[in-house]
Structures are given as C-alpha cells and as structure tokens.
Amino acid sequence: MASTSDIRKGLCIRYSNDIYKVIEFLHVKPGKGPAFVRTKLKSVTTGKVVDNTFSAGHKIEDVRVETQSFQYLYAEGDTFHFMNTTDYNQITLEKSSLDAPDLLKEGEVVTILFNTEDNMPLSVDMPASVILEVTHAEPGVKGNTATNATKPATVETGARVNVPLFINEGDKIKIDTEKGNYMERVKE
After folding, report:
1. Could you give the C-alpha distances from 56 to 9, 18, 20, 29, 37, in angstroms and in order?
2. How does pLDDT run across 16-36, given as a tens digit for each residue?
3. Where in the cell is it found (predicted)?
C-alpha cells in the first residue's frame, strides 16, 4: 500500500475496480483546510480519462509493474504490433492503450509497462520526443509574422502538427510526444 505522497506521473494504481495510470497530479495545500492531491487518471483497459481528488495521507493500492523495451512493427486497424527487443516475441495492443498512436513510426522503440501479477501489458510509454519528416506543408505567407505564426503540416505518420512558417516539405522536425507540439527542426 502506498499513500498520496507516493503519487507520481506514470504510477499505476488500482482504483474503483480498474487499473489506472497517473497522467497528471498536483499537491494542493490550501490556506484553510486539509491538503489534497488532484489527479488525472487514465484507465489502462478502456483508455478513459477521469479526474479524481485524494485527501492527503489517503492510502492507495499501487500495482507493481515491470518495463520492457519493444519495437513498433506495424498497425492493423486499431491493433498495433510490437516486438520485444531482447527475445523477439511479438505482442499486439489496442489503440486505446497508446498515448500518442499518430506519432508512432515503424521501427520506433517504446517502453511497455506490464502488470507483474498476470503479465498483462498495461500501457505504452513513448520516448519524450520523436523525429518525423514533413510530408505536406502549405507555403508560408509572408507579412503576418508579427508574432509566432504557425501553419498546419502533415508528418510521415499522418499526424497533423502546427509548425513555424519556415518549415517546408521534406524537413525533419522534432515533436514532443506528450503534447504533440513542434519542438525544433532537425538538421542532418
């Protein structure tokens, strides 16, 4: 058993007859009244996101997890295929267990969390950023650049990302997988 002081991003807990992964959390100590922890939890079975508030010192049941590296092979409808990088066993996961499936490129190595009790995959942790090639981008319009002007662009995985006006087709860009935002252009 853990308490609210152990809550951190990525922690898997048992809550209301399901297993949830902590996506966001905030410890709040108001001037009046007891402290509490505001969390955003994502169900690892359904993908549903819920907000919950735990009072300070509340006991939570954490789930022991094990991490393994897997390489993304291909997608087939809503099913994604991965291969273990150490023993080459393959597994399939539903799209709902992925945080950013539209930024997943074939050959990308991800970390998959497994429940140690029944060895079932819980969720997929993407790398912090991915480098993808821009396949389509409208030409930038000069003159409206008083502030950070952006335009929509499509990358090789089919995801749409807002990029600065100077990005063109064929450029490689670094994308933050957590928020899906443009970070920088990558030179080769």
Report:
1. 17, 22, 19, 9, 7
2. 888 888 888 999 888 888 889
3. Cytoplasm
Q: Is residue 133 within 8 Å of 156, Cβ to Cβ? A: yes
Kindly tell me if the per-residue pLDDT of 138 is higher than 90. Answer: no
Residues 6+ apart with CB under 8 A from 65: 12, 113, 114, 115, 116, 122
Sorted by where each starts, the structural domains of the chain and their CATH numbers stand as 2-62 (2.30.30.30), 65-125 (2.40.50.140), 129-186 (2.40.50.140)
Phi and psi at residue 98, to the nearest 5°: -95, 140
CB 14 within 8 A of CB 63: yes
In tens, the pLDDT along 34-80 reads: 889 999 998 877 778 899 998 888 888 888 888 889 999 998 888 89
- Least Cα distance to 42 among 91, 100, 81, 92 occurs for 100
Split at pLDDT 50, 70, 90, the class of 145 is low
Question: Which residues of 44-186 form beta strands (DSSP E)?
Answer: 49-55, 59-62, 65-76, 79-84, 90-94, 109-115, 121-125, 129-137, 150-155, 160-164, 172-176, 181-186
